[in-house]
Amino acid sequence: MAEDLKSKQMTTDAGRPVGDNQNSITVGNRGPIVFEDYLLFEKMAHFNRERVPERVVHAKGSAAHGTFTCTHPDMAKYTTAKVFEKGKKTPTFLRFSTVGGEKGSADSERDPRGFALKFYTDEGNWDLVGNNTPVFFIRDPLKFSDFIHTQKRDPETNLKSPKMMWDFWSLSPESLHQVTILFSDRGTPDGYRHMNGYGSHTFSLINAKNELFYVKYHFKTKQGIKNFTREEADHMKSVDMDHSQSDLFHSIEKGDFPKWTVQMQIMPEAEAETYHINPFDLTKVWPHADYPVIEIGELELNRNPVNYFAEVEQAAFDPKNVAPGMGFSPDKMLQGRLISYPDAHRYRIGVNYNLLPINEPKCPYNTYNRDGSMRFGENGGNGPNYEPNSFGGPTQDKKYIERPVTYNTATVGRYDHREHDGDYYTQPGNLFRLMTPDAQERLCGNIAAGLGQVETRIQDLQINHFYKCDSKYGEGVAKAIGRKIEEIVRKEELVHA
């Protein structure tokens, strides 16, 4: 490809040499264009199709190539995955993003940040698709589209709507933990290099003895945490809408390679059954006092994409992509993403998205999937497209069968997650109490900026949730929107009397 780009001769997409790329074919000097102007129609038809549909969420992103180096001396006691052999260096591709905004939105918006990693391992791609927060707003994927609709645009006004956001959150108290993070200083990071990343979900590892361990992944920035205040973030929108993109690109360009310490929390399978917190609930963290983090390696970003569309826009991350020695968990949100992500990629960039260079495994791979739009390569040539066959096609290897997991004798049904776990307040309350007084004040002010715009009945619901987390939390938000906490709490008590 590099040699082709240096060629002096311009051609059509089919290789026909182009003699004039400056003038359309017309009837005389001033006459109309004729249909036989193949070059004009090829260029315009391609131009009309240059943009694939933007991602429904995580539409605006930045990315870079890098390397993950495993430093842990004995990961073999947890997993057979070769990526975790000590000293092993694995090529990676990390895409950062905002979540709710469109492609043209500002990098400094108050929003979670996507943290999606593709590891090109010797045993196939491993995609770890997380955020810069260890929790999320909901814990059941059935509510995902409802939640995202509240973060997009009002169907009547086509404007972002604090009313939709706070109405949903006030009726979904499991969101409190993530809401507290979002409206704290961490909701407006100063660029992608200065924030942590998390796998967020609970995953699993399996060792050679077939023992299973549940795990959570953490990526701690070595550049130091830096956040904007609300005022600084708003100002940055007028200075540089692409602040995070620019900061990441130019830092790598000048050789200042960002790094993260990679850590892991590990829970033996048996302990998950009796742990006092549901370890598969995406709205909760595992307290470090119970499951301390262990350092497993370092992630470094050291190469910028050469072509943004080919590498960043067409990058597709699938949580279903794990290497041997890895697995999933009963995390409902993870289970939903295993289906929704590849489905979104097939819609957005086509059924053969895994064959695009940025998504293609770096190790040998063999599949019977054939045909479909934009099929790359030889499409399997004259080999069989079915299995089993007697013509030497790829065959299964039973040593890679997934480890069976037993879930007691549970009955299949729709279980009310709010009935079975109504503790929405302990962890966000603990988080609030960890903040300094000035950080608490900024949190309350950031919340008030949006909550103050909605009707009082929604304010009452939401402030009562904050009050149950910590009385100072509720009082601070009430004061910031010019309300008296006594009136709000009393009103809630009268409703439930």
From TrEMBL:
SMART domains: Catalase (SM01060). One of its GO terms (molecular function) is catalase activity. Its EC number is 1.11.1.6. It comes from the Bacteria. Residues 1-26 are annotated as: Disordered. PROSITE patterns: CATALASE_2, CATALASE_3. GO terms for biological process: hydrogen peroxide catabolic process; response to hydrogen peroxide. Heme binds at Y341. The active site is at H58, N131. This is catalase. It comes from Tunturiibacter gelidiferens.
